[in-house]
Specification:
mainly beta, Metal Binding Protein, Guanine Nucleotide Exchange Factor, Chain A, 1 helix, three-stranded antiparallel beta sheet, 10 strands
């Protein structure tokens, strides 16, 4: 993590997309949903939610994909050159769901605060014993 001015930086595998994070995450978790398993190669997906005003691309423009067969689909942003998945954007949230593996220093994540979508948990997934776990999403009220 490059910490000048408390900024996190990251990007895609090939370097065509770069970003910076200037806001504190509002949520940090590991997701076990079936969709994340597709993108992670089978394991849980580690992410943090960053308010839109605290996330910006500094190099390149991501490609996007939104399924047209779902009622409230998310939009996935990824590198058009190497395919690295950078963020997920939910239509009901003014935030970027940032994939931790794209940070220059993934250790800056510090670990999840919850495990979500454990309804789709696979037998080979691990959830730390002391980590709050939710079958779907935790209540946001």
């Amino acid at each position: 993590m490059e910490m000048s001015r408390n900024i996190l930086t990251g990007g895609c595998y090939c370097g065509a997309l770069r970003y910076e994070v200037t806001a504190k995450p509002v949520f940090k978790a590991q997701c076990h949903c079936r969709e994340c398993q597709y993108f992670s190669g089978g394991g849980p997906n580690y992410f943090m939610v960053i308010p839109n005003e605290g996330f910006a691309y500094t190099l390149g423009t991501p490609a996007t994909f939104t399924r047209d067969d779902l009622e409230a689909p998310v939009t996935r942003e990824f590198c058009p050159a190497c395919g690295t998945h950078i963020t997920t954007r939910r239509p009901d949230m003014a935030a970027a769901v940032l994939k931790i593996g794209t940070l220059n220093d993934p250790a800056a994540f510090g670990g999840p605060k919850a495990a979500i979508y454990t309804v789709d948990l696979q037998p080979f997934h691990s959830v730390p014993q002391d980590l709050p776990a939710f079958e779907r999403l935790p209540d946001r009220s």
